[in-house]
Amino acid sequence: MTDLLMAPPRGFEHDEFAARTEKLQRLMATQQIDAVFFSTEPEFRYFSGFKSQFWESPTRPWFLVVPSQGKPIAVVPGIGVAGFAETWIEDVRSWPAPRPEDDGVTLLAETLAEASKSSRRIGAMLGPETHLRMPAANYQALQNCLSQHQMVDVSEIVRDLRSVKSAAEIAKIRFACDVTAAGFDFLLDNLQAGMTEREACKAMHLEMLRLGADACPYLISASGQGGYDDIIMGPTDRRLGEGDVLIIDTGANFDGYFSDYDRNFAFGEVDKATHDAYEAVYASTEAGLNIAAPGRTTGDVWQAMWSVLEDAGALGNSVGRMGHGLGMQLTEWPSNVEGGDVILQAGMIMTLEPGMTFAPGKMMVHEENILITENGCEMLHKRAWPTLPVITR
Questions:
Q1: How far does the chain reach from its first CA to its final CA, in angstroms?
Q2: Stretch 327-352: mean pLDDT
Q3: Which backbone phi and psi does 197 adopt, to 5 degrees?
């Protein structure tokens, strides 16, 4: 049994939230934006430090207003007010939610109008990979209340801010990654033919929780003779047997930050094409590790990895990308895609995720988590096994 791992401190110093807010405010000034409001959990938590499982309830909306100067203002249901005593936020405004006829819309509009008297430009997360987490009718009502103001998209500047992690953020992700690595080692020692996918995932899940993960909300598996044909479903009650290949892909969470990578296992004899595919995606990841560095682009990383897979005879890559950002969300901007033009910067945390269809209906996917450093990149956890591990029990 693996010894417990040393977890980093929970939470952040107030100075970190102040720095995040000031960076946003400087970017707001360049676009003449008076105020920004957030209504989704990652952005709300990123700028406020408010962390609650109550986001799982869809009944009540939550809003955070960032003015052009000073601290953010929380506009929240009355049930959540007490929780802000543990944050750096001082101005907390509330209403007796749930109140469907006016669930915070008027209070939010008043707060935004108060903070937006110069350019009358208000920012919100309106771009790709975002949502508002409020009814469309309520957003329309908010726009009606602020008819003299202009709503503008700030998703690009927010994703740029969030993509470069602080030392404290990196420490949390590294711990989540270490817990995941120990969970995979545990699984390698305990997998047996005859187990179901669900039993294998549950065993790993319990071990990661024991080692310090707060949760493992993403833990999928797929299996099949000599390979698998999907990587987003399962686990199922399918029993693992001779000739099967199993993939488990998981995202352990510690203090609100994720790991995200996978491992593959073979049971007994599998054909040479399967072993070759495993070694191809491993080599593809190595190519990604060798090229990922500040100044390189996400397209450069994609091309380096795809060239290896193409040379290995890949029939295609149905995943659609070969890695992505990682942090407060299991997948974050940017994506490693063909022609991608996002320039890597020190402090970014990315996944390298080459995948190949190596035979009709059979794919092999490999994933690792890396930190972009000043001179290149480094793994955030131990590297995968260079050859496909074979379970003979």
A1: 19
A2: 97
A3: -55, -45
